[in-house]
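Q: ADP-sugar pyrophosphatase, please. Structure only.
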Amino acid sequence: MSKPEDPKVTTTPHILKEELLAEGKWVKLEQTTYVDPAGNTRTWETVKRTTRRTNTEADGVGIIALLKRTLHKDCVVMVKQFRPPLGCNTLEFPAGLIDEGETAEAAALRELKEETGYKGEVVGVTPVTCLDPGLSNCTTQIVLVNINGDDVQNIHPTQQLEFVEVILLPLDEFQSKVDDLLQKEKIIVDSKVYIFGMGMAQAFFKPRELPVLKQ
Ligand SMILES: Nc1nc(=O)[nH]c2c1ncn2[C@H]1C[C@H](O)[C@@H](COP(=O)(O)OP(=O)(O)O)O1
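A: Structure for ADP-sugar pyrophosphatase:
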């Protein structure tokens, strides 16, 4: 006989099958049948990209690019563009899909050059991270890039994408500058961008008065 304090019986959740419901050129919809932690068989509607490569770890990259110039504040290079699924402009870090056989680092430098015209240097990369796990298996790696803005090739950067607007936001006022843009026009900010801004606001916060220390 089980006692009330006995732990619940649990199962390691796992996928039983994935059935294709619909497929387009870029995305597909599947019905995922899985066993949940209580041992019940359930289903989930899952969106996947059709472009995922077998030998790459993530679907795409996001790029946190810091433009460093003499006598200027360090600025984060942002892009504004119309996104059809949202029907409006978004404020995002530069980003893009990883090509066949390409590393996250190489994809980041390529996408940064295409979208903004800047030539950067990779200084860090995250592990594979998920983007919207309740909807899709889409993953990204965020690549941190420094740009030497004094370098002759970065003084007048020429982007290759006509409909992407490049916006430079100072790192030390990042969140308030994003808020200003949101006030001015109908624009949706990527959650990664806003969370980055909140982190920067904490990092740059300087209390006006020293807190009174308790004894
Ligand atoms: N879900 C998509 N639907 C489309 O109709 N087209 C799509 C989707 N995802 C990507 N693309 C196309 C658009 C571009 O021509 C290429 C490459 O996009 P990329 O620049 O790598 O990524 P984003 O900047 O994030 O669009 O794929």
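A: Brief note, in case it's useful. The first helix runs from residue 104 to 116.
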